[in-house]
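[Amino acid chain]
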Amino acid sequence: MLNKRLKANMTLIAILLTVFIYIPVHANVFQSHNGISNAVKSYVLKQQVPLNNIQVRLTSLNKQLRLPQCLKPLKVNMAPGARLMGNTSLSVSCLSPQPWKIHVAAHIDGQVDALIARYPIPRGTVIQENDLKYVSRRYSQMNHGFYASAKLLINMEAKRNIKAGQVLTPAAVRAQKLVLRGQHITIVAQNGGLNLRVKGKALMDGQQGQTIKVSNLKTKKLIYARVISAGVVKVNF
């Protein structure tokens, strides 16, 4: 009777030991999704992303995904052609003990310093630095683009009326017209070291570097010339 009871106790102990040994091994056999997400976030934060208060969210990690647990730090890389802002794609891989690699989609967001109009800017106004002001905006809300440098906007022309507080976008501005259609202009004709200046008339509006049609007032000849400054065009002959 004693032997039977002893055998029963030994069997129970063996079962309990099996359970205690089995549970942790089984629980850790798969790579945690949090570990994958944290590896991606850590990688992004180490890059030179032009955003403040960066937020990284994985958008394609399947909850049913089961991968062997990685015993070494996960390796993260950008997918070819991907960017570190907005919607992007990255690869996550494990080297040991059982190699695997997956591709994940992520959304990277944060704050940017964007330029807005300090005052109302009427259509046709040449923009100056005093017209501009920096504000912090969420990158994901800048669907139509924005300017982060005042140097890119100074001396640009408003294509339409711009409200005070409105974000300046590429669609709202254009290069200033240095020559207007019908305007009397100076035509600079250059040939080697020889420079000639004659009076002309613009037959088209023109921006810096743009080639427009002009008329020589003396000869009435129509030619094409490149706008080089306000009221001045240049032609090589």
In short: The first helix runs from residue 2 to 27. The chain has a mean pLDDT of 87.
